[in-house]
């Protein structure tokens, strides 16, 4: 079986094509998210409250890697759709996805 072919790369997100039998192929998306998760954990343990300015105009709630956005989109949750904000908040507030949050507060 031939090696996978890199179709594109943007930052840590890679798109690979795996040739299969009969002229078919499989598309695989991969992303190294360890840096983003470690950064979020550091912000959480440092007591970061999420506010980006003294005026408390904008709050950094989370960093959601592209690969997670794609996974959630396949589940029917579009992170970029304001109508899906309640479902996104539920995910981010869950213990399963807590390391995507930039601070220890409920969204």
Outline the secondary-structure elements.
Layout (H helix, E strand, L loop, with lengths): L4 E6 L2 E7 L5 E7 L2 H12 L20 H9 L10 H9 L14
Antiparallel strand pairs: 1-2, 2-3
Q: What is the structure about, briefly put?
A:
The chain is of the alpha+beta class.
Descriptive account of the structure:
Strands 1-2-3 form a 3-stranded antiparallel sheet, with no helix packed on it. The longest helix is centred in the middle third of the chain and has 12 residues. The chain folds into 2 domains: 32 residues, no CATH class; 74 residues, no CATH class. The N and C termini lie far apart (46 Å). It is 28% helix and 19% strand. It is α+β, with helices and mostly antiparallel strands.
Question: Order of strands in the sheet with the most strands?
Answer: 1-2-3
Question: How would you characterize the largest beta sheet?
Answer: 3 strands, antiparallel
- DSSP strand count: 3
Task: Report the helical percentage.
Answer: 25-40%
The string of secondary-structure elements, in order, is: EEEHHH
Gap from first CA to last CA: 46 Å
Mean pLDDT: 90
Supply the number of helical segments.
Answer: 3
β-strand amount? 15-25%
Count structural domains. Answer: 2
Radius of gyration: 17 Å
Q: What are its keywords?
A:
107 residues; alpha+beta; 2 domains; 3-stranded antiparallel beta sheet; elongated
């Amino acid at each position: 079986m031939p090696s996978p072919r890199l179709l594109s790369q943007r930052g840590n997100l890679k798109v690979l094509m795996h040739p299969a039998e009969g002229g078919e192929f499989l598309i695989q998306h991969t992303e190294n998210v360890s840096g983003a998760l470690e950064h979020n954990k550091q912000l959480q343990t440092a007591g970061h409250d999420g506010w980006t300015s003294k005026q408390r105009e904008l709050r950094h709630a989370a960093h959601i890697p592209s690969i997670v956005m794609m996974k959630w989109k396949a589940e029917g949750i579009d992170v970029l759709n304001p109508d899906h904000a309640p479902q996104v908040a539920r995910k981010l507030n869950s213990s399963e996805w807590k390391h995507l949050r930039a601070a220890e507060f409920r969204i």
